[in-house]
Write a structure and sequence with these properties.
Layout: H1 6-9, E1 20-24, H2 25-39, H3 55-63, E2 68-71, H4 74-83, E3 87-90, H5 97-108, E4 113-118, H6 121-134, E5 138-144, H7 157-168, E6 172-179, H8 189-212, E7 220-222, H9 228-232, E8 238-239, H10 249-254, E9 264-275, E10 278-281, E11 297-298, E12 306-310, E13 315-318, E14 330-335, H11 338-343, E15 347-352, E16 355-361
Parallel strand pairs: 1-15, 2-3, 3-4, 4-5, 5-6, 6-7, 7-8
Antiparallel strand pairs: 1-9, 9-10, 9-14, 10-13, 11-14, 12-13, 15-16
Helix pairs in contact: 3-4
C-alpha cells in the first residue's frame, strides 16, 4: 500500500496541538478532478458529503460544475444548502421528528431542492401527510436493497407496488431509484465489476418495468466509491462517491485500481515510552474512528507497528523503530476509515504548498446546525 503524504510532511507542524486532523488542499483538488474524469461530466455526479462534512468543499465542487449532492443527516443537508447547493438528496429514511425538520429546512432554504428516500409504506404515508400539511410537494426516491441488507426494499413486485403508491401519494413526487452497493469492495476490479453488474441488473429491470407502466423514473442514483467507475460507465445513472474526496488507508489498500490520494492525515505525538519498543500516542478513540479492527490508523514511518491497546485518549503500539522516537516526537498517520474520523474533530488544519494556511470548522459533524 502506497500512502503519499508528502504534503503533510512538508509543513511545519511544531505549533499544532495534537491530536489534530490535517487536510491537504492540493490532494483534495486532485481527488475532485479525478472524480470528474471518471464521471465524464459534472452532471453525472451526486457526491456524498458524509466524508468531509465541509461547506467550503461543497462550494469548491459547485465551482467545478457539480450541482447535485447526497447526504445522510439533516445537518449535512443544511450545510449543503448554506453552501448554495441547488439539489440535495438525504439518502436516509427519515422517521419521527426528522420529517418535520426536513420540511422546516425546505422552508428555510427555498432555493434548494431537497429530496429523500423511502423503503416502506408507513413512512411514505407519513411523508405524504407532512408534505400535504406544508402545502409543498416533496420529491422522494425509492431506496433499493441490492445486497447490503441494511436498508431498502428488494427490486421486485413489492418494490413496484410501493413505487406505484409513491407516484400516487398526495404531495409527493416520485423521484426515481436509489441503490447503494457498499458491500462490494472486492480488490480485483474485474470481480468487483462483475458483482456490481449482478447487483445492478435488478435495478435496471425495475426501472424498465416502471417506465413501461407509465410511471416517472427521473433519476437512478447508484453506488459509492468502490463501484464508482462501474456505474460511471452506465447510461442514465447518477454516481454518488464520497470517500474518494479525502481517501483513507482502507480503500487505498483494498482498491488499488482507483487513483485517489490521502488528503486527510492525523497528527499525533508520543506521550510516553513504557519500554524501548513500545509507544503511547495521544490518538485515542476520540481522535480516530475505532469501529474497525486494528489497524485503525496506518503510520507510514512505522510499517511494522503492532497495536496493543486503544482507549479514550491513548493508543499503545509496539515497533522495532520505536527506539528512534522520544517523548514529544510527532507522527503522521492515515486513518483506516476517514468518514467517522472526520466527525470526531471539531476543526481541521489546512495545508497548502507545504504551509499551514489556516483552520476550518467541520460544519456538519453536529447533529443539528439550526433546524
Amino acid at each position: 500500500m502506497i500512502l503519499d503524504i508528502a504534503w503533510a510532511r512538508a509543513a511545519d507542524l511544531a505549533t499544532i496541538p495534537s491530536p489534530a486532523l490535517l487536510l491537504g488542499l492540493e490532494p483534495i483538488e486532485r481527488n475532485l478532478h479525478t472524480m470528474l474524469a471518471i464521471a465524464g461530466s459534472p452532471a453525472r455526479l451526486r457526491p456524498h458529503v458524509k466524508t468531509h462534512k465541509l461547506g467550503w468543499l461543497v462550494q469548491r465542487q459547485l465551482a467545478l460544475g457539480i450541482t447535485s449532492f447526497k447526504c445522510a443527516t439533516i445537518a449535512e443537508a443544511e450545510m449543503c444548502a448554506q453552501a448554495g447547493a441547488p439539489d440535495v438528496l438525504i439518502a436516509f429514511q427519515l422517521v419521527g421528528p426528522n420529517i418535520a425538520r426536513l420540511l422546516a429546512l425546505r422552508e428555510k432554504f427555498p432555493r434548494t431542492n431537497f429530496s429523500t428516500v423511502v423503503d416502506e409504506a408507513a413512512t411514505l404515508q407519513a411523508l405524504s401527510v407532512a408534505a400535504t400539511r406544508a402545502r409543498a410537494p416533496l420529491e422522494v426516491l425509492l431506496d433499493l436493497d441490492v445486497g447490503q441488507h441494511r436498508t431498502g426494499i428488494a427490486p421486485g413486485a413489492a418494490a413496484v407496488a410501493l413505487y406505484r403508491h409513491l407516484a400516487a401519494a398526495p404531495s409527493l413526487k416520485a423521484g426515481g431509484l436509489h441503490a447503494y452497493d457498499g458491500h462490494l469492495i472486492q480488490s480485483d476490479p474485474t470481480a468487483r465489476a462483475a458483482a456490481c453488474a449482478e447487483a445492478f441488473a435488478p435495478v435496471a429491470a425495475l426501472r424498465s418495468q416502471l417506465l413501461a407502466l407509465g410511471l416517472p423514473v427521473p433519476q437512478v442514483v447508484a453506488g459509492g466509491t468502490p463501484t464508482f467507475p462501474m456505474h460511471a460507465a452506465r447510461q442514465n445513472v447518477q454516481c454518488s462517491p464520497g470517500t474518494c474526496a479525502l481517501w483513507d488507508a482502507s480503500y487505498a489498500g483494498k482498491l488499488p485500481d482507483l487513483d485517489f490520494s490521502p488528503a486527510a492525515v492525523l497528527l499525533t505525538r508520543v506521550v510516553s515510552k513504557p519500554s524501548g519498543n513500545r509507544l503511547c500516542l495521544d490518538l485515542g478513540h476520540k481522535a480516530v474512528a475505532s469501529e474497525m479492527p486494528h489497524p485503525r490508523v496506518v503510520f507510514p514511518d512505522l510499517p511494522d507497528a503492532q497495536f496493543i491497546t486503544h482507549s479514550e485518549e491513548h493508543l499503545v503500539l509496539e515497533s522495532d523503530l520505536a527506539r528512534r522516537l522520544a517523548v514529544g516526537d510527532a507522527l503522521l498517520g492515515v486513518p483506516w476509515h476517514v468518514c467517522p474520523t472526520v466527525a470526531l474533530h471539531a476543526e481541521a488544519v489546512l495545508i497548502e504548498g507545504g504551509q499551514v494556511t489556516g483552520q476550518c470548522r467541520i460544519d456538519a459533524r453536529a447533529r443539528k446546525i439550526t433546524v
